[in-house]
Amino acid sequence: MMTFKVEHVRTKRDLKTFVRFPQRIYRDCPHWVPRLLRDDMATLDPARNPFHREAETRLFLVRRGRRPVGRVAAILSHAANRKYGTRNVRFGWLDMVEDFDAARALLDAVSEWASSRGMETLTGPHGFSNFDPQGMLIEGFERRGTIHATYNFSYYPEFMVRYGFEKEIDYVEMLSRTPDGGLDPRYVRIRKRVERASRVRVIRMSSRKEAFRLSRQIFELLQETYDHIYGVVPLSEAQIDYVTRKFIPILRLDLVNVALDEDGRVVGVLITMPSLSLAFQKARGRLFPFGWVHLMQGMKRSTVLDFLLVGVRASYRRSGVPILLLIDLAERALRLGYHSAESAPMLENNLMVHSLHKYFDARVHRRRRVFRIDL
Question: N or C: which end of the chain has fewer CB within 10 A?
Fold first, then answer.
């Protein structure tokens, strides 16, 4: 019986093997949405991603003979451990063939490395921050994935439980559809009433330049809004710059709502974009030579909206500003021809955000889990 060999990723060639591995096992899966290879190469490169400055990272490949059969990233986030007072290592980028021995080899490698660093627990899947995909799919395997979360086969969570992991926390993803007959007129009345009472106006940024100008205020707002959310860690200036440069260029600004108070300060933001899941499948993880064409077409032709995040300053949450942002967006999405919306993963206990989706008869259609084990 051929044994498994665990390797530490050290070279650029090894990193390419690590990043491309999912294409090997998901090649024939109609629900898998490949990530852009260049994005993962950049994310996992300490020279290009400032999140590595606050973390120690070890990437592992497991081979059977010369053939890769699994991969995983171990991330010791000093920022997270300082904030939460933990001695924890995160794991992410976990993929393996349907062989529990391969999974055990990967998880043993991460556990042993974490123990060697004096850590007490192991949790995941996580990334470096909440801007990386989190959680392992445990429900909704029959649906096409999204570009904002990873897809995995149903044997993944089975292997986690078999190894000894338990539930840490779940994320849910919701699906809502365009209401028959358009938006309920009472929602329009609610929007107008909130605008008058809160003295808040909703704008759409007219240019990338304006988006970059407001980005610092938006990130300050998001850090305040999400500070208490599970797993969130403060971002450094370099990390904010990195995330801003990565995401602003791909947004459709007419699908981003920003709420300003009377003094022009950002008090709320709602970020959505056209679903690019089908476009990413067509691009097969590459922008060139023709992948970018599929992505551009997806931005224009998609009829599904991805609901990414909403943040509202604490002093404005009870004044109806979250609903104001949502209704304003819903009106525009209907005019633009979107027939449904999918949420990004939301913590199962984030009741404020859940309550917004009830206005559009949303239902949970995927669930994903962060697992935990004591070392």
Answer: N
